[in-house]
Design a protein that fits this description.
Strand order of the largest sheet: 3-2-1-4-5
Helix content: 40-55%
Radius of gyration: 16 Å
CATH superfamily: HUPs
Number of strands: 5
Structural class: alpha/beta
């Protein structure tokens, strides 16, 4: 039984498709819909603490804005969207967050990069399908 849906959301076109699918599923099934945004790690070798603070403030502003936009889209569809921003590596953070909060389905957008890019750098989506503790719905 599906009770909790999680959308991996970064504001991209693929993430917006995943969000729209999550909204449809949440409405149809009457379940909770959540979205999580992963804030990439801060610079490791910053010259000053002020540089770290500036990057952190910029990131907080950006990720806060995309969460507010996702919440507005959900409100327009009559769905409450619970958003959260967490720091870390995309795959590891999503896997841990999914485990910690007991999600039944993780929705991720498909970006459609080339096979060469995926072979050289790996695929976030493929890694999530492999490592997530729940079902993963890849939205094309």
């Amino acid at each position: 039984m599906i009770r909790k849906l999680l959308v991996a959301y970064d504001g991209s076109e693929g993430a917006n498709r995943a969000l729209r699918t999550g909204l449809e599923l949440a409405k149809a099934m009457g379940v909770d819909l959540h979205a999580v945004t992963i804030e990439e790690e801060l610079p490791r070798y910053a010259a000053t603490l002020d540089e770290i603070d500036a990057v952190k403030q910029q990131a907080d502003s950006f990720y806060g804005q995309i969460c507010r936009e996702a919440e507005a889209i959900a409100r327009g569809e009559g769905v409450t969207l619970h958003t959260n921003v967490i720091a870390g590596h995309e795959v590891a953070s999503l896997v841990e967050y999914t485990k910690a909060h007991g999600f039944d389905v993780l929705l991720v957008g498909y970006h459609g990069r080339s096979a060469v890019t995926e072979r050289l750098f790996g695929s976030t989506t493929a890694s999530l399908v492999l490592h997530a503790p729940c079902s993963v719905l890849v939205v094309k």
